[in-house]
Write a structure and sequence with these properties.
By secondary structure, the protein is an alpha/beta fold. The protein has one domain: NAD(P)-binding Rossmann-like Domain (Rossmann fold). It is about 50% helix and about 15% strand. The strands form 2 sheets. The protein has a 7-stranded parallel beta sheet, with helices on both faces. Strands 7-8 form a two-stranded parallel sheet. α6 links the parallel β7 and β8. The termini are far apart. Bound molecules: NADP nicotinamide-adenine-dinucleotide phosphate. NADP nicotinamide-adenine-dinucleotide phosphate binds near residues 12, 34, 86, 89 and 188.
């Protein structure tokens, strides 16, 4: 019998694409998210596709107590794949960002991912099988002026997961970091980054999920989907930091029609 494939942040975007991909490969899927009604509908759809009973665990991953409940609930399920995908970004000059949103972002992107990795890796080591996929971003490779805290959370995911990769390397368990670039999901709109030059060209969520799945099956350490994303990551490692910072800030500046909004947010941030 196939073991479970678990996806956090499965209600939309890359997480949803992962969930459908697993269901098509006949895995029973466990969805984790906070919108119970959406998850309920999705589990019905995925059960039809996979022919297996799919379930969901509802919880807000910015809440440590709810993350703990999910980590405990997962103990009863043998897991083949676990995709730590849930996450979101905050955007704009640091001083203009909402403090509570930044706090919640760190809780979801960093704290919940760490806790769930701990719970799931232990289980995979015991069962001597399993693939953990942690979703970072190309932002993990470069500081992001106007996306400072978001990029820092993703740098954490990358560093943390690279270390885990090495720790489990000689075991039947694998750890893979998926580092997407701009992708067509709710992320751009929700964070506001969709207004920036970075998001002029985007990949499909299905393609990103497929690349992540394939890399996990091959036991790869890290995958950056898409030629332009790979090129950006290579270039930031060659160029001096002051040039990288200027270019990334330019790329993250809202495009022309949004200049007014940016000016307003800069004014608010610096109380001009
Ligand atoms: N799209 C991009 O350009 C891009 C680029 C690089 C990396 N990424 C990363 O890819 C991952 C998936 O994002 P996406 O692009 O697919 O965006 P998305 O469509 O906005 O999906 C994000 C998912 O995370 C969930 N989530 C957010 N906060 C949560 C919370 N407190 N508790 C539980 N679930 C929560 C969302 O659930 P709700 O529907 O309940 O909010 C949603 O299911 C994220 O880690 C993101 O940082 C995205």
């Amino acid at each position: 019998m196939k073991k479970y494939a678990v996806v956090t942040g499965a209600t939309s975007g890359i997480g949803k694409s992962f969930a459908v991909l697993f269901a098509r490969r006949k895995y029973p899927v466990i969805l984790i998210g906070r919108k119970a009604d959406v998850l309920e509908e999705m589990t019905k759809m995925l059960s039809r596709i996979s022919g297996k009973e799919c379930i969901y665990l509802a919880g807000d991953l910015s809440n440590a107590g709810q993350v703990e409940k999910i980590a405990k609930a997962l103990k009863k399920y043998p897991i083949s794949f676990f995709v730590n995908n849930a996450g979101f970004g905050t955007y704009g000059p640091f001083l203009g960002q909402n403090e509570k949103q930044v706090e919640d972002m760190i809780a979801v992107n960093v704290a919940a991912l760490t806790r769930l990795s701990h719970a799931v890796l232990g289980q995979m080591q015991k069962q001597r099988y399993g693939h953990l996929v942690n979703v970072a971003s190309i932002a993990a490779f470069m500081p992001n002026p106007y996306g400072s805290t978001y990029a820092a959370t993703k740098a954490y995911v990358r560093s943390f997961s690279e270390a885990l990769y090495q720790e489990v390397k000689n075991s039947p368990v694998t750890v893979t970091i998926l580092c997407p670039g701009p992708t067509k999901t709710n992320f751009g709109k929700r964070s506001g980054m969709g207004r920036s030059r970075f998001f002029v060209r985007m990949m499909s969520a299905d393609k990103v999920a497929w690349k992540g799945y394939r890399a996990a099956c091959l036991g790869k350490r890290c995958v950056v989907p898409g030629f332009l994303n790979k090129l950006s990551v290579a270039l930031v490692q060659i160029f001096p930091k002051n040039i990288v910072l200027k270019v990334v800030m330019w790329a993250l500046t809202p495009v022309k029609k949004y200049r007014k909004i940016r000016k307003l947010s800069l004014n608010r941030a610096f109380r001009l």
